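sanity check both lines:
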Amino acid sequence: MKITIEPHNSNWANMYAKEANKISQIFGKDLVDIYHIGSTAIPGIKAKPIIDILPVVKDINKVDQYNSYFENIDYEVLGEFGIKNRRYFTKSDKVTKERLFHVHTFDIYNQFDINRHLAFKAYLIEHPDVAKQYSNLKEALFVKFNGDKENYINGKDSFILF
């Protein structure tokens, strides 16, 4: 699968806010918090133009009862999708089929996964020099692998896990 990367787009924050509002309405009282994560949440760096959203809920086991609500707003329901105690949803443009949103839902008891996402974002925002290195790496990997998603993602692992 091919990907694209783009310079930071200030509209990503607005896209996040609108979608986060929809997700917040779905989860209602079961929602603890919701965050914009991933590269689109980090000013000044290049990113795949896909907004990553992290809702934190009271109980991960209750999330499945909301699947039809997500489907009603054009999400694909993917269950845990390789990460235990996560519920993952994706949304694509109806016409172009390009991915728009990734929703990574965890419950409040899964502090490990919540914190790893939030800490990476916070670190790069607090260290713009490191964020620039990360952005440069992403651009180099995109060129090197001609937009191949798997190789691009695998190439970032050593940086992300530093």
